[in-house]
């Protein structure tokens, strides 16, 4: 299966190759305005994948009070008069595709100096984060989180690991996904094979720490 992973778009919308599954792991626009969200939806609609999945990030305030809805990303079919879904929004929720179980979680931990306008889906403590990770069922094949796990593609510009320690614990003791997709820490872009049940972990932020569009979407064959 061809899976393309992309995160932390921050207003940049590259042309994608198309494939089986597209995963967008949060921070969808530059300023979270109505116009920018409308443009993101148009871009997403045009991408050629059999299934498209989106989660939110800490910049996506407009999604904070929106519950998962199969028709959140949908278009009007003039021939049938029906709304047709073209992507699925996950928020502490799951779906399946081609026999793969997929779960999406947008949560991250607040850090010192965080922009107060960019604190959607944030928790004050690891204990609060862990409550969110507890919602993830065991046996998930693909886990999509905006936050990285501690020690897995989470080093900041100073080389310090800043990912979630409780997510790391749950990954290796209970969840055991085949693929972990995250973003959030722009400078930690890349691919790793953490071992255990993992086949791949990817941090697919397409911008760097200066919000420059320098990285490509990451393609995974699963």
What does it look like?
With 222 residues, this protein is α/β, with parallel strands linked by helices. The chain has one domain (2-221): 4-Layer Sandwich (Purple Acid Phosphatase, chain A, domain 2). 14% of the residues lie in helices and 30% in strands. The chain has a six-stranded mixed sheet with strand order 4-5-3-2-1-14, with helices on one face. The protein has a six-stranded mixed sheet with strand order 6-7-10-11-13-12, with no helix packed on it. Helix 3 (165-175) links the parallel strand 10 and strand 11 (179-182). The chain starts with a strand and ends with a strand.
Question: How does the SSE layout of this entry go?
Answer:
Elements: E1 2-6, E2 19-25, H1 34-46, E3 49-55, E4 73-77, E5 82-89, E6 93-97, E7 100-105, E8 108-109, E9 122-123, H2 126-133, E10 142-145, H3 165-175, E11 179-182, E12 190-192, E13 200-203, E14 218-221
Helix pairs in contact: 2-3
What's the short version?
The chain is an alpha/beta fold and 222 residues long. The protein contains three helices and 14 strands. It has one domain: Metallo-dependent phosphatases (Purple Acid Phosphatase, chain A, domain 2, 4-Layer Sandwich), CATH 3.60.21.10.
CATH fold title: Purple Acid Phosphatase, chain A, domain 2
CATH superfamily: Metallo-dependent phosphatases
Please give the CATH architecture: 4-Layer Sandwich
The gross shape turns out to be: globular
Strand order of the largest sheet: 4-5-3-2-1-14
The average pLDDT score comes to: 95
Helix content: 10-25%
Number of domains: 1
Q: What radius of gyration results from the CA coordinates? A: 16 Å
CATH class category: Alpha Beta
Q: How many distinct beta strands?
A: 14
Q: What structural class is derived from the secondary structure elements?
A: alpha/beta
Distance between the termini: 5 Å
SS element count, helices: 3
Q: Which sheet architecture does the biggest sheet show?
A: 6 strands, mixed
* Percent of residues in beta strands: 25-35%
Secondary-structure element string: EEHEEEEEEEHEHEEEE
- Stretches with pLDDT under 50, minimum 5 residues: none
